[in-house]
Specification:
The protein is of the alpha+beta class. It has a single domain, classed as Thiol Ester Dehydrase, Chain A (Roll), CATH 3.10.129. It is 19% helix and 36% strand. The chain has two helices and six strands. Strands 1, 2, 3, 4, 5 and 6 form a six-stranded antiparallel sheet that branches. Strand 4 and strand 5 form a beta hairpin. The longest helix has 20 residues. The radius of gyration is 16 Å and the shape is elongated. The mean pLDDT is 90.
Amino acid sequence: MHSSTPVLNFHTRKWVKPEDLNPNHTLFGGRLLQWIDEEAVIYAIVQLENQHVVTKYISEINFISAPKQGDIIELGIVATHFGRTSLTLRCEVRNKLTHQAILTIEKLVFVNLGLDGLPEPHGKTQISFVKDRLDGLT
């Protein structure tokens, strides 16, 4: 990663509840991956301004620590690369209160689709923020 990579913003928080636990009484990894995929695709949809976006690739998942029931965790996601039809994201998950690292994923790749369901160029080259897109409308 180079120094111009944007800083992760941790906006999404989840509370680890009994139904999220595995037999070891820690957060079930599959539940965490579900939360990450959902948050990441929402991030991609907002960045690409298209609801027709699909998960293409998720790189190695590095589980660092296991949250327990009652922990509050937060997901950080940032765009790291804009391809012609794709968007690559990076994700970190940490404990909200202690900031202890829980998981990292270096690459989540999403593909922008046209109405025909095929990859379509998105024309984006950098992160944009909804507030910046809306400024011209006020």
